[in-house]
Amino acid sequence: MQRFMKGFILRHTSWAFGLLFFSCLTLTGSSAQAQDIQTFFVNMPDSLSPLLTPVNRADCVDFMASHMKAEVTNVFGGKSELKVLGKDYLRLQLTSQTTCQMKLLTVADSTRIIAVVSTSCAPVCDSAIKFYTTNWKLLPTERYLKQPVLSDFFLQRDSMTLKGFDAAYLQTEIGLLKADFDEATTNLKWTLTTPDYLGEKEAEKLKPFLRRELLFSWKEGQFNLN
User: Which end of the chain is flanked by fewer CB atoms within 10 Å, N or C?
Assistant: First the structure.
């Protein structure tokens, strides 16, 4: 009887341990998958995705996984396409003139946030960036990025006269900036698109006075200008 009870306990203990081990593996796998940008994209609130329904978003991911063109018909009857999908980055062509990029960023060992860049080209491109928790709660932009302004792109050179610089600056009435994430890294590039808005002559006059791009790198939970 004692031998039977001992065998019974051992068998059930082994079974319980195996079940616990399998459960841990399942939970670990689910947790790892939940960190992928595609999961947050599919589960984002409809209020933040007015053009794409949850089914649209899930279809985009499924098409991409099947190596198919990830194009869907959006709620307005137009075509939207998921162009790039990685573990921590995606890029959507929402309409012919608008795109959306999402980047998963690490703030601390166990804390991640989602940065979203929305770009409209009508016809000159201009971007806006917002930051969210992984539960899609809006975060203060200034906590993670000091967004560049028009004056950050102007250069000061010895050959420039103050008068010439001021004249060039006054031509740029509108500050238009386009933002792009690097797919492979956490770098964020801002491109000055104001010259594209100006006429050819005016844009040519501006060339000696400005740089077209600024590169920001993600370090210690913030984007910093390189």
Answer: N
pLDDT value of residue 171: 60
HEC assignment per residue over 171-217: HCCCCCEEEEECCCCCCEEEEECHHHHCCHHHHHHHHHHECCEEEEE
Residue 208 to residues 9, 164, 203, 205, Cα–Cα distance (Å): 83, 10, 10, 7
Q: Are 93 and 78 in contact (CB under 8 A)?
A: no
Q: What pLDDT, on the 0 to 100 scale, is given for residue 29?
A: 39
CA distances from 218 to 54, 107, 141 (A): 30, 9, 14
Q: Domain map of the chain by residue range?
A: 1-34
What are the distances in angstroms from CA 165 to CA 82, 151, 155, 212?
42, 11, 9, 16
Specify the DSSP class assigned to residue 128: E
pLDDT per residue as tens digits for the range 190-223:
999 988 888 788 778 778 888 899 999 999 999 9
Confirm if 193 and 178 have CB atoms less than 8 A apart: yes
Q: How far apart are CA 138 and CA 55, in angstroms?
A: 23
Question: Both tokens of residue 7?
Answer: 């065998």
Question: Residue 166: pLDDT above 90?
Answer: no
- How far apart, in whole angstroms, are the C-alpha atoms of residue 125 and residue 221? 27
- Tally the residues of the chain: 226
pTM as predicted:
0.80
